[in-house]
Amino acid sequence: MTEQEFGSGHLAVQEDDWKTGYLSGLQIPSIGLAATDGSTVDLAEGSLTVVYAYPRTSPAIGGALEGWDTIPGARGCTPQSCAFRDHFAELKGVGVERLFGLSTQATDYQKEVAERLHLPFPLLSDSLLDLSRALELPLFEVGGMTLIKRLTLIIDNGRVEHVFYPVFLPERNASDVMAWLSSRNT
């Protein structure tokens, strides 16, 4: 683990462990995921889709788990979600049909976060780890929870076209996705 100075403190940097290289070109399996808008989403369907996976968001009251900031790639779930919220219209402008956040947290918990952060897109729950296990996504355990390491998938017609992993400085992830999609379209 390495640390980089970030703002007023240090942020544990998630280094590339090469656990996502096989994902590019992979067909997404047909798995229904509960969404915060009450729907069930199948990522194998639909055209250009962006899915950013994050470990977990902290509750509005009580904050993060003890030691959370020392876990590489853990810190930054809320800023990442807010950045995708803030770039939502721009993402639509470069052809993104669907945008989702994905975590292993339960849908009821995610609904509070989606409302609190005013997200214009649904969050998806993989609380049973069906998608995570089927895709062999990089996971880690903390506090009795199995969580997804931060990554972003660009999916086109049910096939993974590009993977952002590891994602360092999560608040920049939406901008990086925008830049990649813009270069893809030219």
Automatic annotation (TrEMBL):
Residues 22-186 form the Thioredoxin domain. Keywords: Antioxidant, Disulfide bond, Oxidoreductase, Peroxidase, Redox-active center. Gene3D superfamilies: Glutaredoxin. InterPro entries: Peroxiredoxin_BCP/PrxQ, Redoxin, Thioredoxin-like_sf, Thioredoxin_domain. GO terms for cellular component: cytoplasm. GO terms for biological process: cell redox homeostasis; cellular response to oxidative stress. The keyword Cell cycle does not apply. GO terms for molecular function: thioredoxin peroxidase activity. PROSITE patterns: THIOREDOXIN_2. Pfam families: Redoxin (PF08534). This is Peroxiredoxin. It comes from Paenibacillus aquistagni.
